[in-house]
Amino acid sequence: MGFLEPTKICKPGVFLLTKAVFSDKNMGNLVEPERIVPWMEKIAVYPGFFDPITNGHVDIILRGLRLFDKILVAVLKNPKKEALFSTKDRVAMIQEIFIRQPDIEVKAFDGLLVEFVRFVRRHKAKIVIRGLRAVSDFEYELQMALMNRQLDPEIETLYMMPSVHYSFLNSGVVKEVFSLGGSVTGLVPEIVEKKLREKLKQGRLSVGK
Length: 209
Ligand code: ADP
Prior knowledge:
5-stranded parallel β-sheet; 6 helices; binds adenosine-5'-diphosphate
């Protein structure tokens, strides 16, 4: 005789059966465990530098949530690239923006993206999301996606187009416009605008940073 042992309720009415015993003295195992797991959380990793996060990034994260149960925003600590905001600040800003959304998690990482995805794969993540704004993004993104596939064929990269309002936007343009006295309202979340103002006051925001 067999029995199922539901160990966790994932979504209303759906059990993730992490322990299943379906055996019979004479027949052995009757059901393979994989077949009786009816629902698994789908997680995608969205990597980037986010220096700082813009509404273009936010747009991609929210679009991602239409396809996945959870988005893990992976903030790159890149010592080679000079950043205006520290890794801690970049992570904290994103966490604050999505404070009421438990389906968005933020983590910092360094080194190879595939290593990070392998690490979180324990939690069933093997999809990487990237944003494609214009043809100019394509060549670099193609190179990265194919290199990552070479390093780990299990990982797929999924490209999403932002709303047309953000297709010209990147973190560099935001910093440049703001440093020259231009308005970035509507292009970045409020918390980012506030932090940019602080940097400007501290004299830390100059063109090119
Ligand atoms: P950037 O300096 O270009 O913003 P990031 O490393 O922060 O670079 O970008 C992380 C990912 O987000 C990349 O896939 C990038 O193409 C995407 N992205 C950045 N800005 C936008 C935007 N305005 N709309 C859609 N995707 C974007």
